[in-house]
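User: Quick sanity check before I run a bigger batch. Here is a single chain. Can you write out its predicted 3D structure?
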Amino acid sequence: MPHQPQPQAPDELDAQAVRTWSSLALAALGRAREDIDAINVYPVADADTGTNLYLTAESADRALDDAFTKVTEGTAPASLAHAVRAWAHGALVGARGNSGTILAQLLRGVADVLGDEPGPAGPAGTGAAAAGSGALLAQALTRAAEEAYAAVSHPVEGTMLTVAGAAARAGEAAGAAAGTAADVARAAYDGARAALAETPGQLAALGRAGVVDAGGCGLVAVLGALWQALSGQEPASEPVRGRAVPVPQPADPCAQEEEGPAYEVIYLLEASEAAVDELRERLDGLGDSLVVVGGDGLWNVHVHVDDPGAAVEAGVVAGRPYRIRITHFGDERRRGRGERAQRAVVAVVPGEGLAGLCGEAGATAVLVRSGEVPAVPELLDAIRRAHAREVVLLPGGAELRAAAAAAAEQARAEGVRVAVIPTRSAVQGLAALAVHDPDGSFDEDVVAMTAAAGATRYGELAVAERQSFTSAGICQAGDVLGLIDGDVAVIGSDLAETAEAVLERMLGSGGELVTLVLGPEVADALAERLEAYVQHGHLAVDTVTYRGGRYSAPLLIGVE
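Assistant: Done. Predicted structure follows.
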């Protein structure tokens, strides 16, 4: 449950003020969420800026609340440094979309200043003295704007960055005039609102649509919450409304929407700063809207590309990417035009190649490592990103059913009709996608997809990590395990021979189509050998082969 704002002594810049700021910002973004979504036209008209800002703020608030809970269980009071660092870290790991990623870096900039401030209580740093808190907050807002600009590969004026810069300058002026923290917060808030009103004249896309910048709207809400937390006064009026701001524009018959790259790729990355510098250059050549935020070994990477696999592979070269999210913009752009899809499919897949394959089929993919279980918020986020009245969810593993059911239940409470098809492997998900009919009735579509998945036997090859008892006997570390429908059926020493033994058993009860999904380190020669093996012994059976990509198992097999 979100923390409820507590009464705050005016102008006291301490850990409790940060906690109150976070709670008020989350509440303000929650109220403005749909309004901000409605005016989202740049960089992609996908109507999700309000949602992304809210989810980012929610992650940050949750981390801050957890930090306070842990401190409360001890004896020392929460420090200002501890609070802002926890808040910024929560935003970093939970950042969503372009706007949420920039918000995370803004909070990091604030933490870089306030997180180093010892405060009047000595090294524990419970707060900043009122006499210097105004200047300190102004410095924090300036650092935030600087770091946000630096995080964006090609900054554009008329955006959230412009609003952040104006807020910082206004705050600096108030701080230089010996203003209190509340004075600085009010100046920053007013400066942001004034800058926001000018954005339609700075960015052509906003001017044509007659709206202000959506990300800037969200930032105004966050700064209004800061002023309220420090002054105890509510903003005179709701700072963010999703109403069009009429701006006279000459008719331009040649103006048309720029489609841009087809995919949004986001992932967390553990890497060195030097590796991230090289990553920026590589990703900059692959697409646009590149934002890389974070530091100290942990980064959040956001980019729009046509080749999501290349974007993920760039992360692999740089370090260890995880929590990878790939979104196809086809449905997102339709949503930006005010349209809501009737039906969508969300599929959990262990491999970037499979994620791309599902994206090409029109599904929203949730990419995980083989054997990894995504959390309920990740699945719920994917359902929301699908932006459809009806959603078919393919969990892709028995261990994911509980999380899938919980996410579906929450989505239903939001008015989305969700059906969970109990797929136990990615190949069953591919079989279900192959018969998906978005134009048919929901019930008939779910029945057909469930039948296709259920009629697909699934196999997998894995390498044993240690000695263990299995249903096929005792295996040793390094043995190749052939699993059929989740149980170990064959133990071998060679990948190809074990795969042939698994195929023979799976085809023993018949089949018309064999699907092979190769892992990243498996040579194409294995697929050629297995295709020849199937053709030699089962002339009527066809074979299709896909590349599973990074994070996929050595081999997945489906028999329909």
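Residues 264 and 304 are 4 Å apart (CA to CA).

User: Great, the batch can go ahead then.
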